[in-house]
Design brief:
InterPro entries: Mito/Outer_Membr_Metalloprot (IPR051156), Peptidase_M48 (IPR001915)
Cofactor: Zn(2+)
Number of domains: 1
Protein name: M48 family peptidase
Distance between the termini: 67 Å
Largest sheet: 3 strands, mixed
Strand content: 5-15%
Pfam families: Peptidase_M48
Family: Belongs to the peptidase M48 family.
Helix content: 55-70%
Length: about 270
Amino acid sequence: MRTLKLGLIAAATAGLIACTQSPTGRSQLQLFSSDEIAQLGAQSYASIKQEEKVSQDPALNRYVQCITDDLIAVLPAPWSQQQWEVTVFDSEMVNAFALPGGKIGVYTGLIDVAETPAQLAAVIGHEIGHVIAQHSNERMSNQFAAGVGMQLGGVLVGEKLDNQQAALVMGLLGVGLQLGYILPYSRVHESESDELGLRYMAAAGYDPREAANLWRNMAKQGGATPPEFLSTHPSPQTRIDKLTQLSGAQMPVYQQSRKASCRKPS
């Protein structure tokens, strides 16, 4: 028992020292190598391409590639030199994603909702922000650390309480971890990617004010949403307000680099 406790404490301590900083200066826990995360991203991307219908519309593919190329050109090194693969999926799903290893997917349902090239640039820039900030690594690291903490807690609680009491305490600890630790980190990731996406789209010549307009369009889609404290994303209005606030600082960058090279297919 003592050996197990010491092993868990050692794992937790190792997690505490594996800290880095995100592009916005926030402290992060990174326990996995970039190569490991990139391999997982490539595997996930291959699976999605097998499961989803890939769009064969040349105009839509050129449009998405055009916007993506603009964004990649202004990314910090080494991301701007990396080879990025872009796939348009023929689906009504209003979604896009970017995965470690330089993999980007955009669904045609999102292209319908994103009324302007700048609105689509906001989403793609946001998703690229997740990759550059290494949120996948941080997310996996946080979950691993939480798991170690739960195991350690289980060992300590089991020594002090009977089985029924221990089960109750561990259940409460699990809820506490989910609400107080894991979910808030997800909201932090979303907000951080919003900020990074604004930087990238403005530098690429896309009006950053369109990011808030995109989320106004998304809010019009309707549907029930959970309370913000139980969600992995900020509420739509919280997001709109923050994007509106942040876009002002990016306007000078946009004014210097503005262009209109990508046109949405009619």
